[in-house]
Design goal:
- The N and C termini lie far apart (about 35 Å).
- The protein contains 4 helices and 4 strands.
- It has 2 domains: about 1-50, no CATH class; about 60-89, no CATH class.
- A two-stranded parallel ribbon has the order 1-2.
- With about 90 residues, it is of the alpha+beta class.
- The chain has helices spanning about 1-10, 25-40, 50-60, 80-89, and strands at about 15, 45-50, 60-65, 70-75.
Length: about 90
């Protein structure tokens, strides 16, 4: 519902902080499908997530931050859990 309101504003970029935290698996799938649809329409999405499978499955580009600084940047093809965690530490 909240995403629908934001989309009605014709935003060019959405910032989603932990978009699937605390929801069941079925609802996660729906949120991920909606995010993919939105991105397919040319709307940029900045997703902040602490769930590694979500990051690896939904992201085209991953920026890793530690102590307020960007410590790594990966595209979808090169990102692995090990690489991301090594840059996060």
């Amino acid at each position: 519902m909240v995403l629908s309101k934001w989309l009605a504003l014709n935003s060019r970029v959405l910032i989603l902080d932990e978009p699937t935290r605390g929801i069941d698996i079925g609802a996660k799938s729906e949120v991920h499908a909606l995010m993919s649809e939105i991105a397919g329409q040319g709307i940029g999405i900045i997703m902040i997530s602490s769930e590694m499978p979500e990051i690896l499955g939904m992201s085209y580009r991953i920026l890793v931050m530690s102590q307020g600084k960007i410590t790594g940047e990966f595209n979808r093809d090169e990102a692995t859990q090990e690489k991301i965690m090594s840059r996060a530490m």
